[in-house]
Amino acid sequence: MSKNRIVLFGVLGVVMGLVLGVFGRDFIVASEKQKLEAQKAEEAVATSIIVRLKQASTDLSMFRMKNGKEIGENYDLGAALNTPERIREKLGDIYADGRWVFQSNAAGWWIGYKLDGVSNAVRQKIASQARFSNLFKATDKSDANVYDGGDIVFLYDYVPETFKW
User: Fold this and answer.
1) Which domain of life is it from (predicted)?
2) Range of 51's domain?
């Protein structure tokens, strides 16, 4: 091989390396941007679900105030709101989409949200906020039941024993 061809191939190699480096960097940066945007979207979905649970708690408080005479000491919230039709009647259309679960026990009222179709990444974002957002995986308020990424998340909605209608 002649000296000129070796120099030519060397120069072409350097130029191709620079071109690929510049364009390749754009692809790498774009994928990092996409990952960051995906993380932000997951956080937004997780926050939205938690906000909806807290809004449901507020709406249940209004339900308690409006239906004080009907609600007794051992009121079974799960029986009162066990079908989409009853949920629609008592709380409105927003909670009648089949994702909401309402239960009660001696400790208080529980608002559940089914996470069908919600990605594991979003579930983990919710789980990371569970301890300080009062979120559980079952209707038992123990440390062992803090929400950890399962199919349903429960918000504990305390009803004071001293609350009289």
Assistant:
1) Bacteria
2) 45-165
